[in-house]
């Protein structure tokens, strides 16, 4: 089934295949830490050759984009259509049921699979191996240890209406995994794969205190059955025991932070950040049973556990959002928030200046990105710019397009995402692709030379996943000098360097 002979033979991939087969034979489960670009889909394909023809494989992948890429990869490698099925939104229910009954290899997104299992709870009983791709995404970033009677169970509309008024707690796994795991056959070998298994998430313990807990510990405890042995293959073991290091060097990513000096942004940040700190101090005092340590990072991550109607929480979130816009958006957008009565009064009183005199006329970051992009494009390179907001993407697109550069853009509003991506990848000319987080999701860009990150996302794992969209490329992360953002970038880079050292070279 399929042509495995034309694939490059890699020792680390063969070792992983061998460990999966061994775990299946011994009645064990397996977690595999495997960096981006090292062939999770290829390993899944190779496994179809290594198992008996009668043994079936279910691959659960987190998004429709990932599912499409997996299916297209399998087809390109020669798996016959008669052996391959897929379960995602848009596929008729009867066809999904047919795939689950008849196809040897089935690729599914979690929610679509859960919807089918609601009606056919035994539909997975004939699968021998269940692969969960990007298994780290199963864990909720903010959670509670207490048991939840109804929180994540699959239920009919009638059943849900009965419990609508009951308070729900934040279980450790995202929907629909708390219920989905109940349908996995006991005999099946569960295989979790991810390149980002070293982060921590916030957990409120039963005594009320919140704590940072390794996501891997939560996965082991909350997803995998306790009556089966679980083995873990780490990147460290692959590097020491196989040829993985040789391929990691191929995918090395050089990361450099790029400072942008803007005195007006510095002044505005100083006022807003000081006010945020004061609101945070009061919140940690008010909820001292949760925040036994006065740790601002715990507060930032654990805000979801504070009641939504708390005035201090509302104030903190509003100020944090304004600061986020200040760093991540453009003056046309964030100036209207700065001009709201309470914030305007705070700024003018603290700086002793009228608001019109302290709001920048244009974005210094965008000017810097255009300067860098123009230089790289003139030398025949391909560039991707990542930014958080559509306004920024559209501004960059308009500026670069007007300068005559070949420019493409993908956002959450883009309907022909695949078509645009193929045009960008296929062009032999220098070009720039601008993407927002929803647009960039599950996209790999092996052909680019430079990634410019307009603004950072606070979690180490998410930022690592963003910059690893490229292979063998340079990454420039922009930040405003002498601001909260500069501290945030430095902390983020230090943590990435510590947690994911094998394919990053961070230049300060």
The count of β-strands is 17
- Range of helix content: 40-55%
Please tally the helical runs, counting DSSP H or I stretches of 4 or more residues.
22
How would you write the strand order of the largest sheet? 3-4-2-5-7-1-10
Q: Would you identify the CATH architecture of the largest domain? A: 3-Layer(aba) Sandwich
Structure in a nutshell:
This protein has helices at 11-26, 40-50, 64-76, 93-102, 110-119, 157-163, 177-180, 215-222, 235-241, 244-250, 263-286, 296-302, 311-328, 331-338, 341-351, 355-358, 364-378, 390-402, 417-426, 437-440, 460-467, 484-499, and strands spanning 29-33, 56-60, 84-87, 105-108, 127-133, 142-144, 189-194, 200-204, 210-214, 230-233, 253-260, 382-386, 407-410, 431-435, 450-453, 474-480, 504-507. It is of the alpha/beta class and 508 residues long.
């Amino acid at each position: 089934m399929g042509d495995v002979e034309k694939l490059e033979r890699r020792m680390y991939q063969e070792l992983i295949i061998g460990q999966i087969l061994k775990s299946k034979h011994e009645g064990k489960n397996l977690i595999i830490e495997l960096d981006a670009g090292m062939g999770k889909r290829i390993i899944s394909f190779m496994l179809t050759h290594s198992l008996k023809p009668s043994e079936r494989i279910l691959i659960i992948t987190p998004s429709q984009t990932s599912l499409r890429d997996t299916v297209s990869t399998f087809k390109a490698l020669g798996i016959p259509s008669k052996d391959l099925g897929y379960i995602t939104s848009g596929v008729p229910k009867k066809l999904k049921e047919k795939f689950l009954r008849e196809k040897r290899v089935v690729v599914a997104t979690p929610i679509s699979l859960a919807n089918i299992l609601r009606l056919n709870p035994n539909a997975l009983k004939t699968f021998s191996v269940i692969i969960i791709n990007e298994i780290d995404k199963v864990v909720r970033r903010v959670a509670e240890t207490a048991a939840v009677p109804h929180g994540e169970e699959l239920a009919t509309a009638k059943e849900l209406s009965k419990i609508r008024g009951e308070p729900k707690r934040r279980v450790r796994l995202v929907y629909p995994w708390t219920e989905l795991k109940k349908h996995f056959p006991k005999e099946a070998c569960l295989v979790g794969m991810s390149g980002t298994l070293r982060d921590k998430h916030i957990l409120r313990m039963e005594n009320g205190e919140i704590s940072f807990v390794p996501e891997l510990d939560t996965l082991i405890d909350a997803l995998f059955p306790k009556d089966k042995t679980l083995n873990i293959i780490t990147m460290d073991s692959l590097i020491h025991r196989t040829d993985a290091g040789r391929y990691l060097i191929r995918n090395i990513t050089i990361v450099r932070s790029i400072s942008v000096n803007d005195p007006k942004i510095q002044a505005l940040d100083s006022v807003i950040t000081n006010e945020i700190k004061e609101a945070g101090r009061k919140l940690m005092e008010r909820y001292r049973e949760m925040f036994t340590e006065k740790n601002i990072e715990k507060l930032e991550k654990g805000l979801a556990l504070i009641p939504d109607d708390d005035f201090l929480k509302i104030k903190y979130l509003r100020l944090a959002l304004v600061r986020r816009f200040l760093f991540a958006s453009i003056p046309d957008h964030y100036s209207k928030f700065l001009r709201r009565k309470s914030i305007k009064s705070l700024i003018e009183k603290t700086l002793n200046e009228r608001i019109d005199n302290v709001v920048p006329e244009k974005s210094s970051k965008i000017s810097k990105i255009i300067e860098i992009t123009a230089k790289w494009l003139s030398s025949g390179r391909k560039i991707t710019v990542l930014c958080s907001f559509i306004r920024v993407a559209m501004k960059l697109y308009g500026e670069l397009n007007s300068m005559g550069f070949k420019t493409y853009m993908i956002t959450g509003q883009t309907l022909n995402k695949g078509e645009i991506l193929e045009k960008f990848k296929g062009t032999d000319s220098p070009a720039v692709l601008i993407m927002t987080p929803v647009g960039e999701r599950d996209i790999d860009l092996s052909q680019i030379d430079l990634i410019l990150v307009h603004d950072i996302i606070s979690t180490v794992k998410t930022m690592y996943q963003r910059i690893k969209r490229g292979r063998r490329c340079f990454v420039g992360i922009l930040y405003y000098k002498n601001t909260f953002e500069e501290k945030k970038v430095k902390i983020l880079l230090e943590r990435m360097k510590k947690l994911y050292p094998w394919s990053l070279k961070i230049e300060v």
